[in-house]
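ESCALATION

Customer reports they have been waiting on this structure for their group meeting. Please prioritize. Original submission:
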Amino acid sequence: MMFSNIQVLQAAAAYSVVGLHLVDSWNNYTGAHFGYSIDFPGGFNGLFFVISGFVNAEATRNRATKPLEFIRKRLVRIIPLYWALSVAIFITTLFGLKTLGIETPDLRRLILSLFFLPTFENGVLVSPTLFVGWTLNFQVPFYLLFGLALSFERYVCKEITLSACITVLYILSMIIKRPELGYYLDELLLGFVLGLLISRLHCGCPSFLERIRLEIFVTCLAIGSVFLVGTALISTGVLLQHQHAFIAIAGAMMVFGAVGLEAKGMVMRRKVVLLQGAASYSIFLVHPLILQFAGKAMILTGLNVTIPGTLIGYGVTLALVSITGTAIHLYIERPVSEALRPKPSSAPLSKFSGLRRRA
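Update from on-call: job pushed to the front of the queue and completed.
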C-alpha cells in the first residue's frame, strides 16, 4: 500500500538535505566572500531511516515475501543509479577534475563505496566517492537484517528479531574494538526500529488509532517537525552528543502524525508533490553534482557577486535539482528498477505478518 503522506515526508527530507548543502555552499564556496557564515549542522537524513523502517515493514505486511526476494528488490532499486554516479565521479578524477572535492583517483575508496562499506584511512572515516552514499552504508545492512528477520517470521515477529540482532551487534562492538563495527552501531539505527514499531502499531492496533483524535496527529506532525529542525539548528550539549537519537524520535513523531492523518482521510493528492516524493532518491543522489555545476556557473558568470544574485542562483539551482532528479527518476531509475525487479514468490504468509489484510 502506498502512503501519500509518507511520500510528502520523503520529498521534504530530500529537499532539506539539498537546502543544507546550499547553506554549505554559501559558507564555503559561492557565498564565502560575503563573510557571513550560517551555522546549520543539519541531520535531516535521520528522517529517511524512520521512513525506511516504516515503508519496508508495510511492504512486507500480509505479503508472501521471501528474504532473498526482499533484499534483491531493495538492491535493484538503489544500486544502478548509485553505482553509475559513483563510477562517473571516479572517471572524472582520472582526467584531473576535482569532482565533489576528490582531488586524486582512489580506486580502493570507489570499491568500498560500491559495496556500501565505510572507508577508513589511518583510523579516520572518509566519505564514499559520492559522499551522500554514507546513508546507504546504513540502509543496506538494515535490508540484510530485515531479510534475516523475514526468515524467522514464522516463529517470531520481525521487530523482535531485528531488536535482538542490534543488541547482539552492540555487545560485539564492546568486545571487538574495530572502527568498522563501531561505525554501524550508531543511534541512527533507532530510526529504523521506530519506523518498524509505527508500522506494527498502524497494522496491529487499528482500533487504537481510530480512537485518537485528529488534533493529536496534527500535533505530532507539527511538534516532530519543529523538534527536527530545532535539533538540526541547535546541536550543542546533550543534543550534539545524541543528535541522531533525537532526530530519530522527531522523525518518528512526523511519520506517526502523517500516517494517522492519512488514516483520518487527510491525504496529499497533488501529483507534483507526490512525484517529488517518488523521485526523492534520485534527487538525493544527484543534487551534489548539480550544486557543484551550478556553483561553478554562478562564479564564472559573476552571479554570486551580490547577495540578491546569489539567492537567484540558488533558486535556479533548486529548480535544476528538481527537474534533473525527477527526469532521472522517470526515465532511468524507475525503468531500470522495474526491469530488474524479481517476480513475486508464492511463499505462505506468516502468522506474525499482520493482524488484518490491507486493501
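Sent to customer with the following note: The chain is about 70% helix and 0% strand.
Escalation resolved.
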